[in-house]
Specification:
Layout (H helix, E strand, L loop, with lengths): L16 E5 L13 H14 L4 H8 L6 H7 L2 E6 L1 H8 L2 H13 L1 H11 L3 H12 L8 E2 H10 L4 H16 L9 E2 L12 H7 L15 H14 L9 E5 L15 E2 H6 L3 E2 L11 E5 L8 E4 L1 H9 L3 H14 L18 H13 L13 H13 L10 H17 L1
Length: about 425
């Protein structure tokens, strides 16, 4: 996913990256007028905002909404994606090897970018690899047409209208033509998959050729990524985090991004490196996260992890960026063992978890199949009551426990 794009998406919880399946609904429009009339209003607004007539004509003439874009925006989650399946798809042997090779090939450029913006080369290459597979997969949709479609649709009309206006500004400044501005169905563009607002605010003309080009110019690609990361608080003298081992008596109320402690404090609480060794001695605060509960890996994450989350509000994405950067640097795979019985939950199973929780007196929120923070809190409360490890992670095992307890309650009644 893309920079800032996920700010308008629902974050389905610390452990869930959702794989979509199509449940099509017909478009509902932001205006009662037809698309052509609505587009005339966009043209007037663009001209009033100072965008040239030439850009308005080249970008907006003859546009029609793309039905497929609306279909994709209407997709509903069917399965959660497990931690290991996500990581296996993101941090492959081939991607690691290619990333190392490309880092070596671009080392002088990456070093110059680091000198100016303070972002380590291995992280820039990791973002590049995950966002577009090193520039190979940047999207085939007309960005202007896709954004116009989504701005006309009612669901996120204001957000996408703002993106459309910024896309017109980018064309007007001469960074790219309307015909060449291609990207994802949601308007994410180039090798970084920036949305237009992010481009306007953070894209950089690093080589001084007069264009901010994140489509085909690697100096601009790397510098734009680094400029954004620096703006959201990246520290060039720190890493993202590390895998850790938690003590058997660990207090699971501490496993969240809001609970920040010094490394020394985590050490005193029994947190250790993945190999059992002591944590490093450093004046850094961090948070403990466990993306798949007590049966999966745990991580102690630092401030740079927050910067990655600003790029994409997914815990799994942020771990994948950090882990790929580590593998590029020569570090090994994660030490946590995989679960033989691990499988993703279906949307209907998460809905069942929510329904069962409510029937037992807990408050998971709406039974919408999205394992958000309220559902996780309800799972944790149930686990405590049932004398289970209270990690708040909705799993197949939790579903089975809920079914058992609910059946016992029904029998007792």
């Amino acid at each position: 996913m893309t920079v800032q794009l996920n700010r308008w998406k629902t974050w389905a919880g610390a452990a869930a990256v959702l794989v979509m399946s199509l449940t099509m609904a017909m478009p509902t429009h932001a205006q009662t007028s037809d698309f052509a009339t609505w587009l005339d209003g966009v043209k007037r607004d663009a001209l009033a905002a100072g965008i040239s007539q030439a850009t308005v004509d080249s970008a907006l003439s003859g546009l029609e909404p793309i039905e497929r874009v609306v279909e994709l925006d209407r997709k509903q989650p069917e399965f959660t994606q497990t931690f290991w399946s996500y990581l296996d798809n993101s941090v492959t042997t081939g991607r690691i090897e290619r990333a190392r090779r490309l880092l070596a090939e671009n080392r002088p450029l990456l070093d110059r970018v680091q000198a100016r913006y303070g972002v380590q080369p291995r992280f820039l290459v990791a973002f590049w690899g995950l966002e577009s597979n090193f520039g190979e997969h940047t999207g085939g949709y007309s960005v202007i047409q896709a954004l116009a479609t989504l701005a006309y649709d009612a669901r996120r009309a204001a957000f996408f209208r703002a993106q459309l206006m910024d896309a017109l500004k980018i064309i007007d400044e001469g960074s790219i033509t309307a015909a060449d501005m291609r990207g994802s169905w949601a308007g994410a563009m180039g090798q970084l998959q920036f949305i237009p607002t992010t481009f306007v605010n953070y894209a950089v003309d690093f080589d001084g050729d007069g264009r901010r080009d994140i489509w085909g110019n690697l100096p601009d690609v790397f510098a734009s990524a680094a400029n954004f990361l620096g703006a959201v608080g990246w520290r060039g003298d720190e890493t993202w985090g590390r895998e850790v081992r938690l003590p058997a008596e660990f207090d699971w109320d501490l496993a969240n991004l809001k609970t920040r402690k010094s490394i020394a404090d985590w050490q005193r609480l029994g947190v250790r490196r993945a190999d059992g060794g002591d944590l490093p001695v450093a004046d850094i605060t961090g948070a403990v996260i466990a993306p798949m509960g007590h049966r999966g890996p745990a991580f102690l994450v630092y401030g740079n992890f927050d910067a990655i989350l600003t790029w994409n509000r997914s815990i799994l994405y942020a771990v994948a960026v950090g882990h790929l950067a580590d593998r590029i640097a020569g570090l090994g795979p994660l030490g946590a063992k995989r679960l033989a019985d691990e499988r993703p939950l279906r949307r209907v199973e998460i809905e069942e978890i929510q329904t069962l929780l409510a029937s037992l007196g807990f408050d998971p929120g709406e039974a919408d199949g999205m394992a958000g923070s309220q559902t996780q809190a309800a799972v944790k409360a149930f686990q405590r009551q049932a004398n289970l490890v209270p990690d708040g992670y909705p799993s197949v095992a939790v579903l089975e426990d809920l079914r058992r307890v609910a059946a016992q309650k029904a029998t007792a009644n």
